[in-house]
């Protein structure tokens, strides 16, 4: 079995470090407390596991082959990102109204679910697995075994990335202690999600 590890890992590194909706969600959550960051990262990672499992079993390819189904996932994903972005923008003035306050994250469960849904409803994640895995696989090898191995490496790479990102946001939390800086950060996060939603809708 000759997997094309070089091109696969190179492409994977680029995909991991380029910010997307999951990065915005995790950093915003971590800025309110490391525990929230870990919960958001755990939700995102579980979403990746679901995508990886679906890709390995061929379910993602089946979904992508049905235009109406892929469109439904895209619409749901875009709608969810828009809703999250607007919610963040709506509550971004809380720090000025109550100096020293942090964004209301409700509960650990809600933060985890936000991370999970952000990843599961992002069609770009599904299409990434569909395009990245086949390019690295050996046509002569056993497909499910190869897909499972490559998917595990991809999920592991993202998990390692969150292990770096979440603790790094601690310095950002100190910087955001000032209410006005917190408001700017919150509005940037909300705006970023709206931009990303537009980008997904346009593709």
Automatic annotation (TrEMBL):
InterPro entries: LeuE-type (IPR001123). Pfam families: LysE. The keyword Nucleotide-binding does not apply. GO terms for molecular function: amino acid transmembrane transporter activity. The chain crosses the membrane at residues 6-24, 36-55, 61-83, 147-164. Keywords: Cell membrane, Membrane, Transmembrane, Transmembrane helix. The keyword Transmembrane applies. GO terms for cellular component: plasma membrane. It is found in: Cell membrane. It is a multi-pass membrane protein. This is LysE family translocator. The lineage of its organism: Bacteria, Bacillati, Actinomycetota, Actinomycetes, Pseudonocardiales.
């Amino acid at each position: 079995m000759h997997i094309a590890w070089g091109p696969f890992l190179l492409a994977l590194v680029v995909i991991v470090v380029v910010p997307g909706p999951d990065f915005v969600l995790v950093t915003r959550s971590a800025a309110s407390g490391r525990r929230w960051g870990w919960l958001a990262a755990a939700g995102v990672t579980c979403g990746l596991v679901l995508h990886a499992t679906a890709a390995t079993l061929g379910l993602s390819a089946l979904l992508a082959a049905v235009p109406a189904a892929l469109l439904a996932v895209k619409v749901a994903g875009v709608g969810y990102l828009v809703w999250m972005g607007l919610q963040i923008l709506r509550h971004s003035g809380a720090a000025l109204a109550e100096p020293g306050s942090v964004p209301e994250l409700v509960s650990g469960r809600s933060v985890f679910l936000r991370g999970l849904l952000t990843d599961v409803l992002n069609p770009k994640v599904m299409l990434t697995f569909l395009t990245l895995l086949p390019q690295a696989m050996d046509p002569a090898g056993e497909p499910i075994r190869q897909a499972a191995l490559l998917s595990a490496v991809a999920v592991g790479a993202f998990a390692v990335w969150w292990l770096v990102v979440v603790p790094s946001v601690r310095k950002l939390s100190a910087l955001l202690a000032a209410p006005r800086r917190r408001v700017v950060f919150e509005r940037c996060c909300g705006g970023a999600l709206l931009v990303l939603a537009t980008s997904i809708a346009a593709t």
